[in-house]
Amino acid sequence: MFKKVLVANRGEIACRVIRACKEMGIRTVAIYSEADKEALHVKMADEAYLVGPAPSAQSYLNIDRIIEVARESGSEAIHPGYGFLAENPAFIERVEQNGIVFIGPNSEAVKAMGLKVEARRIMKSAGVPIVPGTVDPISSLDEAKKVASEIGYPVILKASAGGGGIGMQIARDEAELEQAFNMCQKRAQAYFGDPTVYIEKYIEKPRHIEIQVLADKHGNVIHVNERECSIQRRHQKVIEEAPSTVVTPELRKRMGEAAVAAARSINYDNAGTVEFIVDPNLNFYFLEMNTRIQVEHPVTEMTTGIDLVKWQIRIAYGEKLALRQEDVVINGHAIECRIYAEDPDKNFMPSPGKITKLVWPQGEGIRIDAGVYEGWSVTPYYDPLLAKMIAWGKDREEARIRMINALRSTVIEGIKTNIGFHIGALSHPLFIEGKTYTTFVEDMKNYK
Ligand code: ADP
Ligand code: ADP
Ligand code: MG
Predict the structure, then answer these.
(1) Which end of the chain has the lower number of beta carbons within 10 A, N or C?
(2) In sequence order, what are the residues at sequence separation of 6 or more whose Cβ sits closer than 8 angstroms to the Cβ of residue 140?
(3) What residues line ligand 1, using a CB cutoff of 6 Å?
């Protein structure tokens, strides 16, 4: 096994990866920016190196410096976490050119899924159902109008290079299309440096259900069940659970097989997630593939007993998957709440500042993946995710009650958080009934 791994990330995911390494007897190397000198991941790692000033472009995205640190520290492999450089094929190539192992998929597979229109085209040829829409970029408003009237309104415009729920625009009729098209193009350029946009049919009252896959470098591919991630704000997940309340063993098998086919079609290796949108009739359509560990991976771990991060490391080392499809079972139910430093009353805007008091909950079935500690100041430079709180129960109701109790006994002072929002969501009749489609957050407020 590797003796030393560099973790090219920060926050809770860097801590999570360091924990897996420690359990495997691997030494860990952290990197940090000037804003993160006192960060938790720096304290947890065996060694830590400054990589640059606070802005991520100069630190956590500074490929030259990260490679230099990997070489200087004698790291044999790099785990990228999620976000930052995790899905950057140029980074993967640089890592490999330096004789270092990238703990993630091969760069070709990442490239294939990096541009969403391209990914749609590949999936279509692999026989994986995609959301109706274009498999070519849309370059003018006229073309957008033509395509939209063909597939029928409402439509959703997306940045091909997009992610994190950013830039998507819904148009319900031709009058709304012009502004939506211009806005989407503008955001695509501003956030992702690529103005390419495409159009999909907007599915009403959908669920977001994704399939975890694990693939080794020897051609073995399995899926590790679904995660239901429909509870979102600004198209970004905030509550996730496994299993989904609507997925039957039969549907799980079909979605699982589609995800495995998707992975095989691009010679995927390592852990990855195939995201699907599921309509009210339970038709499922490929949305995108995330070629990395996912934020919400713990709900899969808690219900299967499979440590996904350890498997990422073993697969990258070249080990064969010791798991067969029939070894993957579901034990109980898990719910995850993403705890953000944000203000639910101000459209979930980030709320950085010093954490003056912090007490995490305890008890049977509760897991906390945190990236912060009492006395730490949340900086405005990065994603304001503080921690993930995961509750496991023998069934959904036990997990739900445990989660609410855990949220209620959490103390975070000095900054605003979304804990109150989570308690409201989990106590809501729609959630209790399992009616967790993607407009849940808006519907929750209007529900009588
Ligand atoms: P997942 O798809 O794993 O559920 P998110 O959509 O929350 O996760 O994205 C994962 C993480 O990746 C985010 O928390 C954020 O840190 C990072 N991320 C996603 N999109 C972007 C982006 N466009 N720019 C910068 N960071 C991003
Ligand atoms: P990102 O890369 O930002 O994660 P996705 O394509 O995965 O983008 O979509 C994120 C979310 O946006 C989905 O989970 C869903 O809530 C919404 N969404 C995306 N495409 C559609 C669609 N065609 N119809 C309805 N909702 C959609
Ligand atoms: Mg997505």
Answers:
(1) C
(2) none
(3) 82-83, 163-166, 191, 236-237, 290, 294-296, 383, 385
